[in-house]
Specification:
- The protein has a domain of 187 residues.
- Helix 5 links the parallel strand 8 and strand 9.
- The strands form four sheets. An eight-stranded antiparallel β-sheet has the order 7-10-3-2-14-11-13-12.
- The longest helix is centred in the last third of the chain and has 21 residues.
- The protein has nine helices and 17 strands.
- By secondary structure, the chain is an alpha+beta fold.
């Protein structure tokens, strides 16, 4: 049973302030084969039909948080943790890390009732994706096929066996449930245009023409306005009707934003799910001291254990030494 799960990352001090983790959309994944199913011939009718299904499906509606079952892989420390100057975050795998980030309930229009009802078929397909839960990546030399496209989960969880050393697990999250997004300034006008009232849009400049947007708050307020002014759905709950409205307006727009690989989707994690921080063996002293101080003085983070990684004197491996941060 998996009790701990790990995230390799650069050291970002703002993470310990906002606890926001990136989930990576299709267009920003670093593997060029990711979410690109195999196909025989694009001129083949069956493949053309599959491509059309691909374009019309929710294939692009999700992002993934990549985690590992190991915290001591030297390649991953180099690739993802800033060449050993970053950190590895240990999470409690027995907690549901993103329990609130489920798919919306799908609705469909019923002509006989002249109103929206629950779409059981679509909801079953969404439930099978198991959004918000830790799921093991499977490795294979063959790519998932277009002909078996109905099994979307297979496409989200299969990678080349060249990546097997990562021992990856993933959490699949809907784009629509992101707490914040980071976008280039070129998208700001279009975001404002999609809103009924842009006065509650919070645009925080991050530098380099990038802005942090409070997307979850925006969508909630837009949905609440719909319920107040336009809601007439006798066959479904207000919550489902609100989410259906949000999805109908913003699903395609968020997919369009996701095609820009600089767009970042951020999701908040509960502080109690963080068990430990492992600092890289090449972390700068000033960063080390600042991190220890930040965690030890924050009552929401003071339960977190901190380890310093050091190189083994005999083997090509790392050793981790726990620090007593409250005595430093």
């Amino acid at each position: 049973m998996l009790n701990n799960i790990y995230k390799y990352t650069h050291l970002r001090f703002d993470f310990f302030d906002n606890l926001l983790i990136r989930a990576t959309q299709k267009y920003a994944l670093n593997d060029p084969f990711e979410l690109r199913p195999s196909h025989k011939n694009e001129d083949d009718d069956s493949d053309s039909e599959s491509f059309e299904k691909l374009a019309n499906s929710s294939y692009f509606d999700y992002a993934v948080v990549s985690l590992s079952e190991t915290n001591n892989n030297l390649l991953m420390w180099s690739h993802y943790a800033d060449q050993h100057k970053g950190i590895v975050i240990e999470f409690d795998a027995n907690r549901v890390l993103f329990d609130d980030y489920k798919d919306f309930t799908a609705l469909k229009y019923d002509e006989d009732l002249e109103g929206e009802i629950i779409d059981d078929v679509e909801n079953e397909r969404r439930e099978n994706i198991n959004a918000g839960h830790i799921q093991r990546v499977r490795y294979n030399s063959k790519r998932p096929s277009m002909q078996k496209f109905e099994n979307i989960l297979e496409h989200l969880l299969i990678k080349s066996d060249e990546w097997i050393y990562e021992k990856e697990h993933r959490i699949i999250l809907p784009l629509l449930t992101a707490d914040y997004i980071v976008v280039h300034e070129k998208h700001l006008d279009s975001i404002e245009f999609t809103l009924y009232d842009s006065s509650y849009l919070d645009e925080k400049s991050l530098g380099n023409s990038m802005f942090l947007i409070n997307i979850k708050e925006i969508l909630k307020l837009e949905g609440d306005r719909y319920i107040r002014e336009l809601y007439e759905q006798p066959y479904v709950s207000e919550e489902d009707a609100k989410n259906s409205f949000i999805e109908s307006i913003y699903r395609e727009y968020l997919k369009d934003l996701s095609e820009d690989p600089t767009t970042v989707f951020l999701y908040k994690i509960h502080p109690e799910s963080i068990k430990a921080i492992y600092m890289g063996c090449k972390i700068l002293k000033r960063d080390r001291d600042r991190l220890i101080k930040k965690i030890s003085l924050d009552k929401n983070l003071s339960h977190i254990k901190i380890f310093q990684s050091v190189t083994s004197s005999e083997r090509f491996e790392l050793e981790f030494k726990q620090l007593d941060i409250h005595s430093l």
